[in-house]
Amino acid sequence: MKDFKSIFTKKHFLYFFYGSLAVLFLIKIIFPTITKDKVAKKNAQTFTQEAVPDSIDIYRQKAESTLSLPYAISKYEFTADGKLKRHKIYSVPDFNRCFPDSNNLHIATAMRLGVKPVQDRRMAEKNKTELVYVGNSPYYHVKKLYNSIPYLVPSAALLLEHIARTFHDSLYIKGIPLNTLMITSLLRTEDDVAALRRHNGNASDNSAHRYGTTFDIAYNKYVMVQDPALPKVRPVRDDTLKYVLSEVLKQAREQGLCYVKYERHQGCYHITVR
């Protein structure tokens, strides 16, 4: 009996190999749907995996859906004698614990949802497709800006409008004279960041403000609304207004609309749209 190795030579192996290829080629020609179905299934699996949204995208969709709706004014309640029933001021138990969102959280979201950092104001003004101008409105006042420029991405501008209108609404139903919010910081350009670092060595070279998703609202400065045709409005303590603002921001944060950080030394709330 001959040895198997002597029978199955290299020449036989090549015959077997090329024969197998020929059979597979014929199968592909006769039954083309077999390979197409496998490729289509693989592509479908890949597409499905890529289409699954992560938490940032889920909250982005939720926030955009909520902020795009018409603003809903609070339902006013009246007493038996027809007077407006005033709501109580509750504030929040602790500012640091209620608004703990870290800078890293703000930056990670801003980098995903915002614009690429711009060098200066001229570049921001050119980017009209991704940024909108933010000026004074009946609901908020933009302080004279030294380290930022008045631009935001559209979703952040809608969030600012939503917070400011809710603040006015809340003041009214609590029987507090109207005051507008003061906005202290918006979009920071690369030039702004460089200037900040020259004056403050501890200033970070990265900030959520660089992406147009973030703004700061002062909690110790407000602008009183005074109609010159009416008697002078009594001033309101800044602490009282701060308590009302904290209620508004707590609600917006719990709705998944934004991240909020209580900046004790800067005297403001640091807010990033989600």
N-to-C span? 80 Å
Q: How many distinct helices?
A: 10
* Low-confidence regions: none
Output mean pLDDT: 86
Q: What structural class do you assign from the helix and strand content?
A: alpha+beta
Q: Work out the helicity level.
A: 40-55%
The shape is elongated
SSE order, one letter for each helix or strand: HHHHHHHEEEHEHEHEE
Question: Looking across the biggest beta sheet, what order are the strands in?
Answer: 2-4-5-7-6
The number of E-state strands comes to 7
Largest sheet: 5 strands, mixed
Report the β-strand fraction as a percent range: 5-15%
Rg over alpha carbons: 30 Å
Describe the structure.
A five-stranded mixed sheet has the order 2-4-5-7-6. The chain is elongated and about 110 Å long. Strand 6 and strand 7 form a beta hairpin. The longest helix has 21 residues, at 10-30. With 274 residues, the protein is of the alpha+beta class. The mean pLDDT is 86. 28% of the residues are buried. It has ten helices and seven strands. Helices cover 46% and strands 14% of the residues. The protein has helices at residues 4-7, 10-30, 32-51, 55-67, 95-98, 103-113, 121-126, 154-173, 190-199, 238-254, and strands spanning 132-133, 140-142, 151-152, 179-185, 214-224, 258-263, 268-273.
